[in-house]
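2024-03-11 09:14:02 INFO receiving multi-entity request
2024-03-11 09:14:02 INFO entity count = two
2024-03-11 09:14:03 INFO echoing inputs for audit
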Amino acid sequence: MELRNYLIAIKAIIKKDAKIFFRYPANAVFRIVEPILWITPVYFLSKAFQINGENIGFSQYSGTTDYMAFLVIGSIVSSFVSAVMWGMGFSLKNEMDVGVIESNWLTPIPLWVQLIGRSIFSLIMTTVNALTVAFLVWLMFGFNIAGGILMAIVTLLPMLIALYGLGFGIASLVLITNNANNIIDITNFCLSMMSGESFPITVLPRVLIPISLALPITYGYDAIRGILLNTKTLLPIPVEQGILVLFMIIGIFVGYRILKWVEKYCRTKGNIAFH
Amino acid sequence: MTSYAIEVKNLRKEFEIKKRNGFFKRNKKKEVFIAVDDISFQVKKGEIFGFLGPNGAGKTTTIKMISTLLRPTSGTAIINGINCVERPMEVLKILGTVLTGERSIYWKLTGRENLEYFAAMNGITGRKAQVKIDYLLTRFNLDKRADETVEKYSTGMKQRVALAKALIADPEILILDEPTSGLDPQSTLNLRELILEIKEEGRTILLTTHYMEEADQLSDRIAIIDHGKIIAMDTPCNLKKGLNKTNIIVLELKDWNSSTEERIKGIPMVENITSRFDDIAQRWEVKIHMVNGNDSINDLITNIISTNNKIINFRVEEPTLEDVFISLTGKSLRE
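2024-03-11 09:21:47 INFO inference complete, emitting structure
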């Protein structure tokens, strides 16, 4: 019975978010245009480094000469990472600012279910967005993938679920600090810097590589590129997939516990009342 | 089975206050502000229980503890036999709450969409939800504009959507925090009528207000709260009866100052004095509580005239809840 109510609530949150999203039509257009604007100068820069149409230096590190495909895959995976974090953290802040957070907390739906609901619409939009952007970039600049799309999705899923744990953590920080943009921006920036969103982590200074290797997302980027582009991976792909599954279990458990603790803290301190 | 819908026992809420010195320094010594100070009361099933007090008295904090948004520092709040802290999700299933402010609903959604959303959040979907939503929209006179976004509604309409939202899950108990705050007089009257209709359906209502006429008109019983403490609790009639030996004398004066006030305070039988300047009429309205006042009216008039003050009007009023509040605290509800 509870599960049924939770699913009904998640569906209602997705529907509500979709309606609000499409009442700002510029949002939809901007979400397609923005990633292309980011990728275009990097494409031309990488072209400037090419010899006979190939990024030889880049291939020494990554095992592929197709920097554009490497970049697009990194950008797509990164957009899913952002979708979970923004979907949870920013939407929570947005509800605080709009003034409806208390109305939502007064429904018999736990906060963690509400957060999952909020991130799902963000993920749906990201999927549509990522496919559109990938298609447009393919038309404009061209890139090749070796195949294995299904396996890449199977690898992405535990990483996304694990990110829900991180999302719970971000939401907790937003609740405590009443600040979303800075927290999400910094977390996002650090994650993409350290986990090799747009470059192979082997180019990082030695001192930073252990940090990068300690981030499970690093193995997500690496495994998905290994599957789709046959790049050199840090570890065998099944091992990297195992790390992601482990990350999923630990991430969800730890994130959930933190969120429950922070929720109790906010109800004690009266934080939500003052937003 | 308990006969009380709400039972509050020794409820207390403390907030830590962090003070800052300059830009960065924070005072190490933490101060504690007691918002609700050990209050106890019961609300019978089917009654409207009014919580009357000035702004900052602790009404909203109490409501938030009862509706599970805040955890009490100590004490308990029991809703239909269910503890608010131990089983909050069960409490929320039988509670409909309207918090103060008009931004408790989504302005970018229509009135109907808001109700659909909150119905689903309470597990109500499909045909059952549609029937309920249509009924509430019609009942609250929102049906003609149900498919417009809430941002285009008046404040009164937004408040009616918020009330309909609280009723969507058919709750046994309704909590209304300052429901008419910010409304124009006509919307206020309409909303008060709606609240009385909701009570007629057999629901229990806990209502906070700082409008004494609202508490008087709507409540079966009232708790008067000030500085986090309940200072009186009874039916409006009994509370006013408690002042039957007190005369409420209202004087409209050209001038009023502290020396005149001190002089009047010196008259035996004068209990409390409150004053306010009426900007429109450009005169002072001074309300004086006097015990067995008939005996001292001569003294009062003589004293005022001796200060060369001009009495524009003079009347004796029946006690109101505001007078009860003044008699208990020595200050007006508006202060």
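2024-03-11 09:21:48 INFO post-check: Chain B has a mean pLDDT of 88.
2024-03-11 09:21:48 INFO post-check: Residues 99 and 113 of chain B are 19 Å apart (CA to CA).
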